[in-house]
Design brief:
Elements lengths: L6 H10 L4 E3 L30 H10 E2 L2 E2 L5 E3 L5 E3 L13 H9 L23 E4 L19 E2 L6 E2 L6 H4 L3 E4 L4 H7 L31 E3 L5 E3 L12
Parallel strand pairs: 1-5, 8-9
Antiparallel strand pairs: 2-3, 4-5, 6-7, 6-9, 10-11
C-alpha cells in the first residue's frame, strides 16, 4: 500500500521516465473524492476503452456519460504512448472489478493460475512502433497485425490481432498474429527492482495443452454471461500484453 502521489509528483514521475504528458484542463482537482476516501493505493489498473481515437477516449474518461459520471480514470494512454491526465483522486469505473484480484494485489501474490509467461511480461511497449507479424515478418505483413510495415515488417500495432506467443491465439494460430520487440514497462520495473504482476480474467485454459508440437491449449469453452445476457469467453488473448513478447 502507498499514499497517493500529489498531482505535481505524478507529472514529475512520468516525465522522469521520458513519458510525454498532456495535462487536460482541470485534471488536478477533477475527482470523485466526495464519495469516499482516496487511498491508500494498492496497485494500478490499466483498462482499454471502447472508443475510436484519442480525443474520444479522453473526452469519455474525463466526462463519463449519463449513467456513469466522470472522471473514469486518472490518465488515458494514447497509442503513441502519450499520457493524457484527466483526473486526480477517486474515480468511477465501468464495472465492479474482481475482488479476488484485488485481494491478490494487496497480498502481492498471483491470482488463480496466473499468466502462462509471467517472466517476459509487459503492459506498455517502450517503442510502440516495434510490432511485427509473427511468424512471418515481411514487408507484406497483414495490415490487421501491423500498420504500414517497413522493409523488415516492423511498425505500430493498431488493431486487435491476437498475440503470437499465446496458446489460445486466433483459432490455433491460423490467423494474423502480432509480436512486439524491444523493452516494455515490465523490463523497466524489473530494472528498478519494483515488484509487479499482471492480473486478468480467464487465464486457466478450458483444455490443457496435450503435449505435441503444433497443438495448443484451449480457452474458448470457459464462458460467463455478460450484462446483455450473452455468453462470452472469459479469456481474450489480445487483452494479454505479456503474450506479445
Amino acid at each position: 500500500m502507498a499514499t497517493p502521489l500529489s498531482a505535481s509528483r505524478i507529472v514529475a514521475a512520468l516525465k522522469a521516465e521520458g513519458v510525454k504528458v498532456v495535462e487536460v484542463d482541470g485534471w488536478r482537482t477533477r475527482n470523485r473524492n466526495h464519495k469516499g476516501a482516496w487511498g491508500p493505493v494498492n496497485g494500478v489498473m490499466i483498462h482499454h476503452t471502447v472508443t475510436s481515437g484519442t480525443k474520444a477516449s479522453v473526452d469519455l474518461c474525463r466526462d463519463g456519460h449519463a449513467t456513469l459520471p466522470g472522471p473514469l480514470c486518472l490518465g488515458v494512454i494514447a497509442k503513441d504512448g502519450t499520457v493524457h491526465l484527466v483526473g486526480n483522486g477517486r474515480t468511477n469505473h465501468a464495472g465492479s472489478g474482481d475482488d479476488d484480484v484485488l485481494k491478490a494485489v494487496i497480498a502481492v501474490r498471483t491470482s488463480r493460475s496466473g499468466p502462462r509467461r509471467p517472466a517476459v511480461g509487459g503492459v506498455v511497449s517502450v517503442d510502440p512502433a516495434s510490432g511485427r507479424e509473427h511468424p512471418k515478418p515481411t514487408s507484406k505483413s497483414d495490415s490487421y497485425a501491423v500498420v504500414s510495415p517497413g522493409a523488415k515488417g516492423v511498425d505500430t500495432v493498431i488493431d486487435d490481432p491476437d498475440p503470437a506467443y499465446d496458446d489460445c491465439a486466433d483459432k490455433d494460430h491460423t490467423g494474423a498474429l502480432a509480436a512486439m520487440q524491444g523493452k516494455n514497462i515490465g523490463d523497466l520495473l524489473n530494472a528498478r527492482a519494483v515488484s509487479w504482476g499482471w492480473f486478468q480474467g480467464g487465464f486457466l485454459p478450458s483444455t490443457a495443452w496435450d503435449g505435441p508440437s503444433g497443438d495448443y491449449a484451449k480457452c474458448g469453452a470457459t464462458t460467463h454471461t455478460n450484462v446483455g445476457g450473452a455468453a462470452v469467453e472469459d479469456y481474450s488473448p489480445h487483452h494479454n500484453p505479456f503474450a506479445y513478447y
